[in-house]
Amino acid sequence: MSDELKAAVAAGVVGSEESFRSLLDSVVEVARAIFGAKASSIFLLDEETDELVFEAVAGEGADTLIGQRLPSSTGVAGWVLVTRQPLVIEDVSNDPRHSKEIAESTGYVPQGLMAVPLLHEERALGVLEVLDRPQRAQFSLVEMDLLSLFANQAAIALDLLQRARRAEVVLGESGAGASLLARLAATVQSLEEERREAALELLGGVERVLRRDEGG
Amino acid sequence: MGTSEPEQDKQSAPHELRPAWSLPAGAGDTIAQDVEWPGQVTREWAWGGSTGAGVRVCILDSGVDPSHPLVGQVQRSVAVSIGEDDEVLVEDDAEGDLCGHGTACAGIVRSLAPDCELISVRVLGAGFTGSGGVLLAGLRWAVEQGFDVINMSLSTTKKQFAGILHELSDAAYFRRTVLVASAHNMPVESYPWRFASVISVGSHEEPDPLTFFYNPSPPVEFFARGVDVDVAWTGGAHIRCTGNSFATPHMSAISTLVLGKHPELTPFQLKSVLYLTATNVGGGR
């Protein structure tokens, strides 16, 4: 990869993890609000360790769950991931064994949950869950469709997040320079006009000094 | 049908190539059908009096909790995994159910077909990585066993598995094993429910377990009860569930009832019976 290309890629990647993470946060917030639920979360599949990781949480557990891990193919989230089938279950707390498991993974025992796989092209990237909708009336298939639409959005955000992380790894392996320059460029870009001009002037001076040194 | 051992004609490998013999002149008698089809196929004719006795139903899922009163006797439980040298391992399974879903499916089938035989094939629990291979291996094993009905509330999005799944689905179809598979209501390609040789199932919102609809706009062929279903779950619990994965065992159970009464039906004939007795076709009579 040429230095210019590296710098360009780095400029695109630096800071994008935060943006994609915000997008995921926004998806779980909106899902929670639309369904009037107590909590909503997104799990990302970590292919290296074969586990599900809490990547975004809104509502109950938001402070404590990020980064916690679950087995990738057991429990309700694991079933949804492996089978690619969405699932809605109510009265979960009737099941003592799973109540305990769920409580350990969510911080509290929900009455009900909706879980849907996050699918992007051929890949299953994770699971979106919505816990404890308040209405106890009959579930409607319209809600299921709505959940699937959210899942689609979340899957796209997860895909972007994973790409950004992979690009960060590649840049990290190819030296810290490109990454540093990209961060610098992003910082300068975010300054007010007056300070930006001053910073560009300063950086221009640094460049001239460096080139003079190169020239010997 | 009706024994715990696979039938002779179901012993051979699923990929065995069979010649497509022609029918010589005057040999029509050799393929005479011993089922007398009535002028009008009714539910009474199709499954009246049937309890599913003699029909072997395989639940390809997360395992089944055999101690749940709504499940009753489970004839056999196996777990499928892939060994270190990529060999397929099919071992007796004492883990029960690692999610609850398999128990729910088994309970639904048992509630409608109380005397059928249930066999659990667990294809979950060995991790997500490699789960596609386990699913395929589990389905292949189930087809080789010659079960009458295989309930598959699952699907894969991996294109690399589509060809082999298609082959297995067709093999099952020609060996009189009915594959009942959950349709996918998400905007992605997934298998095997899209294949014509399986019975694919989506959900309707009616509360009656024997109400089912034929869909004149496939790929989903039938809609069965899949909303707010009271099901068995692990830990002896009952919970209410929604999803195509609960509609699927309803169609498996209805298929089981029909095969209990008419064990000679091929999957093609069974589908025809299901079509004619669908609520929107035969009026639920």
Question: How would you characterize this protein structure?
Answer:
The complex is a heterodimer of chains A (216) and B (285). Chain A is of the alpha+beta class. Chain A is built from seven helices and six strands; from the N terminus they run ααβββαβαββααα. The model of chain A has no long low-confidence stretch (mean pLDDT 83). Chain B has 285 residues and is of the alpha/beta class. Chain B is built from six helices and eleven strands. In chain B, helix 2 (101-112) runs parallel beside helix 5 (244-261) and helix 3 (131-145) packs parallel to helix 4. The longest helix of chain B has 18 residues, at 244-261. Chain B is globular and about 55 Å long. The chains are: A alpha+beta (216), B alpha/beta (285). At the A-B interface, helix 3, strand 4, helix 4, strand 5 and helix 5 of A face strand 11 of B. Strand 4 (87-90) of chain A pairs antiparallel with strand 11 of chain B.
Characteristics:
heterodimer; A: 216 residues; alpha+beta; Beta-Lactamase; 2 domains; 6-stranded antiparallel β-sheet; 7 helices; 6 strands; 19% strand; elongated; B: 285 residues; alpha/beta; Rossmann fold; 9-stranded mixed β-sheet; 27% helix; disordered N terminus
Biggest sheet of chain A: strands side by side, in what order?
Answer: 3-2-1-6-5-4
How many beta-strand elements of chain B? Answer: 11
Note the total helix count of chain A: 7
The appropriate CATH architecture of the largest domain in chain A is: 2-Layer Sandwich
Mean pLDDT of chain B: 91
**CATH classification, class level of the largest domain in chain A:** Alpha Beta
**Span between termini of chain A:** 27 Å
Number of strands of chain A: 6
Q: Helix coverage percent of residues of chain A?
A: 55-70%
Architecture of chain B, CATH level 2? 3-Layer(aba) Sandwich
Q: Identify low-pLDDT runs of chain B.
A: 1-12
The arrangement of helices and strands of chain B along the chain is HEEEHEHEHEEEEEEHH
Average pLDDT metric of chain A: 83
